[in-house]
Hints:
By secondary structure, this protein is mainly alpha-helical. The chain has a domain at 14-117 and 127-221. It is built from twelve helices and two strands. Helix 1 packs antiparallel against helix 10 and helix 2 (40-58) runs parallel beside helix 4 (94-117).
Amino acid sequence: MDQLILNGIVNGLIVGGVYALIGVSLTLLYGVLRVVNFAHGEFVIAGSFLAYVLFSHLGLPPLLALPIAAIAFFAAGWGLYYVLIPRLSRSDDPELMSFLMFYGVSIAAAAGMLLVFEADSRSIDYTFTPISVPIGPIYVSTARLVALAIAVAISGALAMFLFLTLPGKALRAAIMNPEAIQIMGVDIVRLSAFAFALASALAGVTGVLVALVFPAFNAFSGPDYTIIAFIVVVLGGLGNPVGALLAGVIFGLAEQLATVFLPQSLAQIVGFAILVATIFLRPTGILGSSARK
Length: 293
């Protein structure tokens, strides 16, 4: 049992690191733009398919796919912002309309991936040397440990960016009070475009990590990661990037440890039970604050 618990903790940290990145990219988008991106999971899976294409057709290992995914998704996110978001600002209820719009984007993206890659599940058959690393009495896949290290590095770099750089501080200020930063002369449109592009880049990079951590993915996997993203965002606190990082780890640990003590059918609901309990006991989330008026 001790080995099972240790295995659950290690895998929970690995999976939680990936969940944290999925959640923090969505919470940046919601915090700055108040946009409900229901297609976020499709963005993540698109990153997985990009890594698959680069590996299977060009022979590029997943680690080299990371910067390519970041650049490609950043550029795509910047362009997509100017195509979609300005139209939302002219609606009576931008948040509701963003949900409906991105639900349509989700369906279109899934259909596009289905058309190109068909319904078969894909995986990246790439192995590191050594294949596994001993951690006490258990062996953990090297690919998973590499994914965890990358997730930690990206999370640390993102935290430094948000707290130590001027654009990062501007993003945090936009989350707290977008009206005030406009009075200070900040171009909220360009800042919002940057936030959308950054969130898209994080989603694409996370998709590469998903391909390393999980055994397979397909065109229909997107909604699963969208649900995970929303759970992490609500747990951490709406619009709070640090809360999303913490909530992702908590959710990953709860999910993996539940498989040790509970049947598989019941283990899947533990994360959702934590979500419901958080909503009842602390509606603003772990590190959330009162909703902005």
